[in-house]
Amino acid sequence: MLGNSIALLMPGQGSQFVGMGRELAESRARAAEVFEQANEILGVDLRGICWEGPEEELTRTENAQPAILLHSYAVWVCLPQEVRERVTIGAGHSLGEFSAYLAAGALTFEDAIRLVRTRGELMAGAGTVRPGTMAAVIGLDPDAVRSVCESVHDGTVVPANYNAPGQIVISGDIEAVGVARERALEAGAKRAVPLNVSGAFHSPLMEEAREGLALSLEGVQVREARFPVVANAAALPVNDPARARELLIEQLTSPVRWVECVEAMNATRPDTWIELGPSKVLTGLMRRIDRGTNVRAIGGPEEVDAVQALVEEGDDA
Length: 317
Prior knowledge:
alpha/beta, Malonyl-Coenzyme A Acyl Carrier Protein, domain 2, Alpha-Beta Plaits, 4-stranded parallel beta sheet
């Protein structure tokens, strides 16, 4: 069942894998065109990196971010028009917010993929200027994680991603994150797992990247979104172009308030949730946030076919 109201989810960095989007492009001419366009726009063989790797190259921040947006958008353009017209609200995790604005018509594909490529370069550069890291804290509530971070006075460490109940990512200076991990375990966390990242994303350590992203956005026309996109930094639905720009910049140094974003979307009572792109990360988080939601991940031709079949069966429940 799809229903008449669909909530759109666009994944973020970490969901990439070698081979992403290949089966879709080989079976859908429209997806193949999008991969070709990405190569032409960026002057980089992003398609080859997506499909053949190596993994080390794909996971580089400046490659992973446009690769994920590319795959998500390739799925979007392959969906039946009837499905795209039923999307009433959207959100994306970190870079996925750009993908959501792209699907909502606020950004063109050329502008969106250039922006996330630049964003990835800026974030990687900020990580070089001021090295940092991130860690996933499992089994503590938000207040406890905030208290742990505030207890570390040597260096910076902050909550960066409120992904799901009991799953919060912290970010900051390498030593400060290490101390916070130890204190989180002392406070009762089940695990505190270091993440393989190139910098302290969504923390004050990304301040270096904000000016560059702001300059890049100045040169881009942002249109009013066809459907509201719930912004990570505010957990509020946004249509207004000026507000969208402001929050996309703020997002670099602010936490991803994903649980609150999902709650804001849920308040609109969508019938179905769809995640577009590689992996099923957000689908898994959705099931931890609200088990009662009807959510499906769409990344390959089989999933697109399944949605097409629902449309052809006249699903309007």
